[in-house]
Amino acid sequence: MRRDYNNQMSADTETASNGSAEVRDLKKTVFALREELERSRRDTAEAVRQGVSGANAEIAQLKATISALRDELQEWPLRRDEAARLAQAANLDEIKQLKDTVAALRDALEAARLQEETAVRQAMVGAQDEIAQLRTTASTLRTSLEQAGFSKQSEIAAARAQDHAELVQLQATVRALRDQLPAAPAKQAK
Question: Which residues, other chains included, contact 138 with Cβ-Cβ below 8 Å and sequence gap of 6+?
Fold first, then answer.
């Protein structure tokens, strides 16, 4: 029995030794599996963290884009109004310049008309003065002729004829000047 006991002990020891080795192997396997599980959890957590970080970065970028677009949308009416104001100011400036140009042209036209009227008046006054001088000269010549009492009728007739010719010429000159005078007011009316 002792032998059986020894055999059994030896078998038990061997079984125990086999069992210990199996337990040790199982513990190693459990440890390795825990390590693998922990590594897998860390990797998953890291992947989740990176995914969340990437998503947060994309969300932040989208928020910034939305904010920029919102700001631009809010500024749009201001920029549109400013552009309209600048265009209106340019139009008003151009209108003012055109009005100034029209006024300057009117002033220049009025000055030219007045200058022409002045020239016509001066020409009329000059012609009237010349006519008056010629009449005075003719009258003086007649008086001189009468006072001198020339004896020769032919000289008197010649002098009278000359005076008459001058008078006719003066009258023709006066008529020509008068014909020119109505033409000048017609030019003024234009």
Answer: 163, 166, 167
